[in-house]
Amino acid sequence: MYRYDDIDQRLVDERVAQFRDQTRRFLDGQLAEDDFRQLRLRNGLYIQRFAPMLRIAIPYGLLSSKQLKKLASIARTYDRGYGHFSTRQNLQLNWPKLEDVPEILAELATVQMHAIQTSGSCVRNITTDQFAGVARDEIVDSFVWCELIRQWSTVHPEFNYLPRKFKIAVNGAVADRAATFVHDIGLHAVKEGDEIGFKVIVGGGLGRTPIVGHVIRDFLPWRHLLTYLDAILRVYNRHGRRDNIHKARIKILVKDRGVDKFREEVDAEWAQLKDGPATVTPEEIRRIEGRFTRPAYEKLADIDYTSLKTPFSAWLRRNVHPHKVAGYAAVSISLKKTGVPPGDATSDQMERIAELADHYSFGELRVTHEQNLVFADVRQAELHGLWLELRALGLATPNIGLLTNIISCPGGDFCSLANAKSIPVAESIQRRFDDLDYLHDIGELDLNISGCMNACGHHHVGHIGILGVDKNGEEWYQVEIGGNQAPASLGKVIGPSFARADVPNVIERLIETYLELRDGDSERFVDVVHRAGVEPFRNHVYAKLDQKPADRRQALAA
Amino acid sequence: MPSLIKNRLIVDKPSPPELVVQPDDDLEALAGRLPGLAVVAVNFPKYADGRGYSVGRLLRERYGYKGELRAVGVVARDHLQLMAQCGFDAFQLREGEDAQAALAGFDDLGEAYQTSAAQPVPLFRRRAGR
Prior knowledge:
The complex is a heterodimer. By secondary structure, chain A is an alpha+beta fold. Chain A folds into 4 domains: 6-59 and 75-109, no CATH class; 127-288, Sulfite Reductase Hemoprotein, domain 1; 311-392, Alpha-Beta Plaits, CATH 3.30.70.3340; 407-557, Sulfite Reductase Hemoprotein, domain 1, CATH 3.30.413. Chain A has helices at residues 6-27, 33-41, 65-78, 101-109, 142-153, 225-239, 250-257, 259-273, 282-291, 311-319, 347-360, 383-392, 423-432, 436-442, 503-517, 525-532, 535-542, 549-557, and strands at residues 45-47, 52-56, 62-64, 82-85, 91-93, 127-128, 168-171, 185-192, 195-202, 214-221, 320-321, 328-333, 344-346, 364-367, 373-379, 407-408, 447-450, 464-471, 474-481, 492-493, 498-499. Chain A starts with 5 loop residues before the first helix and ends with a helix. By secondary structure, chain B is an alpha/beta fold. Chain B has one domain: Rossmann fold (3-Layer(aba) Sandwich), CATH 3.40.50. Chain B has a 6-stranded mixed β-sheet with strand order 2-1-6-5-4-3. In chain B, strand 5 (68-73), helix 3 (80-85) and strand 6 form a beta-alpha-beta unit. The mean pLDDT of chain B is 95.
């Protein structure tokens, strides 16, 4: 964890007082609803379908057990005893009362948390790889750079009223686990000789116009990071479209200008800022590094669990990940148990998870953009003990990377933007694929669901993506295949949309096609789509859709 | 006439600006006129139109404008601190804003992390000196 100093703390305390006063003025009728909207959004507060929704920032997904206990207590006191972990690595409360929000923010500030800029047209929570600091392919510890950017972006006087929301992702390892190509800005750490720098990717994004980002600089030396960000944001703030909300993201500006012209403009702006006072100093990097708590690793040896054949081994295979320190492992806690909305956790679960983090993982955990949790520093010798505890809490579903590890937005059950529900669709798919052996046989598969084209469920980069659409007031579902997070590719729509009840059948037919076409276990679903194209999948899905899967299986067996 | 706040004081009869900059104006083309001017205004056409913040910084930091820099248009209490950080020292509040109450808006947050027209040295460099 980055531990606040007195200045960081004062800022969040003053922000609470500021919002308390703004809320009071709104409730007194001194502040117009439209104006208050801008202010409350920048403090994470939406007005949703049934109630306000408060999105609490979890900077780069990193949480202490103390903070998680506070979140559990807030969800119990001010909400209905549960929270929803989002794809932005944040926590959403779906039922707080507007007049309680200043108090909630004050409670958050006591554990160095806030909801600053979790919504509104400004720089949002910085996201990163959930294995930052422990991955074997690490280039830099991305948390340090995320914190640097968090401070730079927090109440930036020039960039608080951008044309539209702005999302930045940082990846510090060789593999891109932060989806840097589908963010407004993606930063991917690179090492040239001894020097650390960043590949800078701009203009990617999902939403209604999904675009894979463009590399505008192959190597930006680290000390220029903030001046270069200032330059990009300034070009965007001045020239991004403000006449049409659907054309206002930076990806549209980059597309309209052309990448080369956009890069030229940024470089011209940067030439004026480069080497100025915002140039990052080694002292500041050391200061930030020094304020992060670090696990006191023991000298341990790796344990070989490969010969095991028990339910524990399925969990080891799917939910336990390599660690750069011998004798340790990172563990994914699946929030994707069938029947539970993806990413939801109750206050009781949060408290138990916090206790487990204290016992098993140095009192810290991470929230992943796949809406799961990670204990990053577990002793391998304690994996079995942790598994037993998690299993008792319903948090040991061995499905990380598999079809039932569904990313889903809250959808029409909660969100006023949604065209269709997404949680019941996720559940119906999970129920259809409840056979673990079958699931493991299908192998790696990302299935993502969004309830509308705003794409909060990242359906464009799911190997299978499902999008809720509205057809004459009815909820229908469009299916895409072939999307991928990294290397980024966008899914292709297979054809006309489906009624909700048909969705599990459609998924089953896609899987049948895949199993039929694959060269072997190592060729994943998405690889087959990229090799064979959409056509064979489409043909199988739309052939006699009314036929029951069970009958077809019999027919296939015969 | 809505109230003008200048250097944190309420001014009764402000002089009109000599130049009103629109948020999409080409600043390079205007730059030559700036040295002779005493009052330049920047228009904020909407509550959440943030272009003027960049314009303010550029006029101050890049083009070296030293005179009064006045925010006009939709300017409200909750904008004041950010605008001041971006180099504005005068604020023509929109109709209906309580100028006296708005004065408190300059001091909501005591510190900013970033470089700005008002504080060119970012917090991390000042922290290092502590």
